[in-house]
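Weekly sync, protein design subgroup
Attendees: M.S., D.O., the rotation student, P.L. (late)

Item 1: inverse folding check
M.S. brought a backbone from last month's batch and wanted to see whether the design step gives back something sensible before we order anything. D.O. pointed out we never logged the input encoding, so this time it goes straight into the notes. Structure tokens as presented (482 positions):
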């Protein structure tokens, strides 16, 4: 794993590389990836690790929107198994296993308990989850099993006891989405690519009807460039149609934004180490209550929205929906006064025509326009790596580049703990644990300056050194970025 100090993780250096290509003092890029969420970051990692010359730009900060507003789960999708989408579940379970290995500092197994209130649900769920286990194969986690009522209450003591008959326990992955995004950005640089935040794509460059680059603007200074590239990859999530219509103003919209809202509740609502999974809600989704950093994340909703916004807001009815469903399964009914915070994200679902977004496919969609714009959208965090592989396989053809094999199945991401190797000196409770192999860099900062080794707040575990580290190696430009 490269030492962070050896990487060119300065935004200034990234802008210099953009200027150099725009002025012709450096060659054109093989790939210009627009969008710094999970999809774009993954595509740039894949391309850079194949040896291509790659630039990624993001209009705000990395994972600013949807990619930092997930349920924090790396999962195969129990709901998709129920829908009969076997291929999607198989792919997601395989990718879950790869993520557990390649980002082992951020992904861990989490037990989920499904409370059973009807006699027939127990065997049905038990069989379904055994199939789920078997589909994961060698990359599986711990096996699922039926629980007695007493065992269920021991695992999730705050579950509604009235009518409870038993439970089913199974295992999926939990991860830190925004930290993974930062590590992907660092991995791009480690593999020889360039990434820059707060750089917007304002237009596309065409030559003889073929896209050969893009107009970019530094959102901080206003400086603009025309940057040449053999292929432009549109990985802008819910904003994908905007870039497609820069290419072709007549392009029909393909994105149906779906809003997912999560509530953050105090730890007392779920004091154990297991999550709760409710397999069916009024809108056809599953509902999760997940332990997360001494709080509980409850979600999510699936609300069709007409507009794609960088800062979506939760609707009152969505908050009411989550509180109402949580009250059905928790012994203490949460109220609006209990909600510590709310976060919302928009899923870039493909198609649907304004119908129920819970029924729209979560498979990713890859589209190449007549002028060569490659658009990748849909999917989810769990399958980001496979989406990237499919995208670069196609983009190599569009760019007329020699085909290089994908290597990301075995590529450890920045911060991952190599095996074998010296054990980490952090513990899971340590705020530096999520930095993995880079935790020693932060410890060095804390020792370098006594003020950097102090907590930012007596109520939180975070150190001032983490702010310094974010500015130096994560391109953090604002307090929100940190």
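Designed sequence read out in the meeting:
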């Amino acid at each position: 794993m490269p030492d962070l100090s050896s990487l060119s993780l300065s935004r200034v250096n990234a802008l210099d590389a953009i200027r150099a290509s725009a002025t012709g003092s450096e060659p054109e890029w093989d790939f210009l990836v627009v969008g710094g969420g999970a999809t774009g970051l993954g595509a740039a990692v894949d391309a850079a690790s194949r040896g291509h010359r790659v630039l990624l730009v993001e209009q705000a900060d990395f994972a600013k929107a949807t990619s930092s507003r997930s349920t924090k789960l790396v999962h195969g999708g129990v709901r998709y198994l129920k829908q009969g989408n076997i291929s999607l579940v198989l792919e997601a379970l395989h990718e879950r296993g790869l993520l557990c290995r390649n980002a082992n500092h951020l992904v861990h197994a989490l037990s989920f308990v499904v409370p059973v209130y009807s006699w027939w649900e127990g065997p049905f769920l038990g069989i379904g989850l055994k199939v789920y286990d078997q589909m994961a194969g060698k990359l599986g986690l711990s096996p699922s099993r039926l629980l007695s009522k007493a065992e269920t209450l021991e695992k999730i003591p705050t579950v509604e006891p009235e009518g409870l008959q038993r439970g089913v326990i199974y295992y999926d992955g939990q991860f830190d989405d925004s930290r993974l995004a930062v590590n992907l950005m660092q991995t791009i640089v480690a593999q020889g690519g360039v990434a820059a935040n707060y750089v917007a794509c304002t237009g596309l460059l065409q030559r003889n009807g073929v896209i050969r680059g893009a107009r970019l603007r530094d959102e901080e200074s206003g400086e603009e460039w025309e940057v040449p590239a053999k292929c432009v990859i549109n990985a802008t999530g819910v904003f994908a149609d905007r870039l497609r219509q820069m290419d072709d103003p007549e392009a029909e919209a393909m994105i149906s934004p779906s809003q997912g809202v999560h509530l953050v509740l105090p730890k007392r609502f779920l004091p154990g180490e297991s999550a709760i999974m409710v397999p069916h809600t009024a809108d056809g989704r599953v509902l999760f209550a997940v332990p997360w950093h001494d709080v509980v994340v409850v979600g999510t909703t699936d609300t069709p929205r007409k507009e794609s916004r960088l800062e979506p807001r939760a609707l009152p009815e969505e908050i009411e929906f989550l509180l109402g469903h949580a009250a059905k399964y928790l012994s203490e009914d949460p109220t609006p006064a209990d909600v510590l915070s709310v976060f919302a994200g928009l899923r870039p679902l493909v198609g649907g025509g304004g119908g129920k977004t819970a029924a729209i496919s979560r498979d990713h969609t890859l589209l190449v326009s007549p002028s060569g714009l490659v658009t990748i959208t849909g999917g989810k965090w769990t399958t980001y790596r496979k989406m990237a592989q499919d995208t670069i396989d196609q983009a190599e053809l569009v760019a007329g580049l020699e085909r290089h094999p994908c290597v990301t199945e075995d590529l450890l991401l920045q911060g991952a703990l190599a095996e074998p190797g010296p054990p980490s000196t952090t513990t899971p409770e340590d705020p530096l644990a999520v930095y993995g192999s880079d935790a020693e860099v932060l410890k060095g900062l804390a020792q370098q300056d006594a003020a950097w080794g102090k907590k930012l707040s007596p109520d939180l575990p975070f150190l001032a050194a983490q702010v310094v580290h974010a500015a130096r190696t994560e391109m953090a430009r604002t307090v929100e970025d940190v």
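Discussion: The first helix runs from residue 11 to 23. The radius of gyration is 23 Å.
Action: P.L. to compare against the previous round before Friday.
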